[in-house]
Amino acid sequence: MSFGKLESKSYLLGIIKGLGITGSHFVKNLFGLGDRPTIQYPEEKRKYSDKFMGVHVLTKKHNGEIACTSCMLCATNCPAECIHIVAAESANPKVEKYPAVYEIDLLRCVFCGFCEEACPVDAIRMGRDYEMAELAERNFVVGIDYLMNRPQLKGRNLSVFHEMDKIVKSDFIESPKLEQKRVANA
To answer: CB-based contacts of 142: which residues, under 8 Å, 6+ apart?
Structure first.
């Protein structure tokens, strides 16, 4: 009977082989003989891709107001249904409504980024923060204050949609051919 045939018929040889591999990895890691995949966190932090999606960020306009218009597209598009918005009328006559309550349940969120893609006014972005240690479950339901003003943001949450200098004026100027057609049709 060959060794391969014996190994396929007996589970005992497979267990011994597996324990041998586990033991060799244990000894190598114990005495530092091989490369260790472990990093010394929190002193050393892992480098993540630029595509990494961490904790959400609500953006602001230049005057400090929230950029969100309470259109509910992010909450509608969310597959985990973790976004809760309550809209209210704004005192500003130029703004129809704003979110009086904007909450995200981070334990329920799958960090897919669909909310960011659905937002037409660049009001929500996926940040790069991934450290979310808390003791109580209720601390993972975060509101407007945390999403807009947490210290890790360092003021980098201005909405590009509301920056007038970033909008190319030629996008709003009609081409001469379109102008001629509009005049001819009038």
So the answer is: 55, 56, 103, 104, 106
